[in-house]
């Protein structure tokens, strides 16, 4: 009875999932995580006896992602994301905001100045990453003002009018 219920639920989910507009080409989603919905679909289809290749094609994910999800389900009995993965944070969210705020207030501030003001031992790449996440990029000053043709003409006239001047006229 339980298998019948799982198959019925899986078929309904697949019908709903298949109604969406699926692109003809596979989207390249190398670093995107499986959503809870996709994880549930994978578990349901694999429980119903589908092959990994068939599930991967239906969910539009790689076979490796499907296999990893299924292995986690069979090993741990859950498909939830694991907490605590990745490096530990060196700075707090408040210090993140302070880094961005300093760059907004003074665009010429250096990374070493920001690091000294925050007061936490972090590498300059961390500061650059936080500024990039806030969509702040380094700005190169103009070497010369961008002039329109009209400005160039006026400058040329001004120089020609004063080209016959001597030192006393200047």
UniProtKB/TrEMBL annotation:
Report the subcellular localization.
Nucleus
Which segments constitute the Transposase Tc1-like domain? 96-161
Q: Which InterPro entries match?
A: Homeodomain-like_sf, Transposase_Tc1-like
Protein name (Swiss-Prot/TrEMBL): Transposable element Tc1 transposase
Q: Name one GO biological process term.
A: DNA integration
Question: What is the predominant subcellular site recorded for this chain?
Answer: nucleus
Q: Name one GO cellular component term.
A: nucleus
Say which domain of life the source belongs to: Eukaryota
GO MF, one example: DNA binding
């Amino acid at each position: 009875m339980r298998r019948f219920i799982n198959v019925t639920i899986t078929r309904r989910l697949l019908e709903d999932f298949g109604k969406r507009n699926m692109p003809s080409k596979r989207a390249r989603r190398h670093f995107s995580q499986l959503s809870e919905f996709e994880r549930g679909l994978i578990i349901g289809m694999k429980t119903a006896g589908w092959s990994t290749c068939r599930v991967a094609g239906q969910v539009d994910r790689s076979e490796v992602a499907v296999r990893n999800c299924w292995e986690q389900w069979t090993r741990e009995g859950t498909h939830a994301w694991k907490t605590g993965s990745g490096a530990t944070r060196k700075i707090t969210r408040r210090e993140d905001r302070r880094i961005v705020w300093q760059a907004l207030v003074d665009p010429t501030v250096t990374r070493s100045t920001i690091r000294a003001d925050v007061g936490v031992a972090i590498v300059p790449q961390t500061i650059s990453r936080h500024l990039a996440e806030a969509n702040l990029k380094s700005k190169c000053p103009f070497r010369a003002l961008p002039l329109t043709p009209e400005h160039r003409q006026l400058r040329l006239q001004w120089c020609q009018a004063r080209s016959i001047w001597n030192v006393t006229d200047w």
